[in-house]
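Example record

The entry below shows one chain as it appears in the dataset: sequence first, then structure tokens.
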Amino acid sequence: MEKILSMAERRLGERHLISFPIRVEWKDDKGEEVVEEGLTENIGPSGILIHLPRLLPNVGSKVNVTVTENPATTQVTVTAQVLRLERNAAHPQAALMLVGSTKDWEKEVWQYAGDVLAAQKPDNFDDWN
């Protein structure tokens, strides 16, 4: 009997819920270059959920994603494959799986995202008393 894995079981590491500005490039059905600016929704060591406000690539297509958040370091560009789309008119999203080497991504983006989140101070809830 084949075991069916849930999405959480297939993930290779913790996902960080953080918004970084990104640029996504791909070729459309006509072979023309498309460039969209957007935001990350969450970042994992081998995948990302992104929000693109205007256009989404097709499921199965390959895209280049550049994270433009940390200009002090070299911008990291990775190739990813589109796994799933959420065509919500108010908030369109694409789930991407990184292909090829992810070493730079893990160090410069995923770990950086974890560091940014860890450095945040918790909200002061004194107003609730």
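Notes for this example: Helices lie at 7-10, 103-119. The domain at 12-119 is CATH 2.40.10.220 (Thrombin, subunit H).
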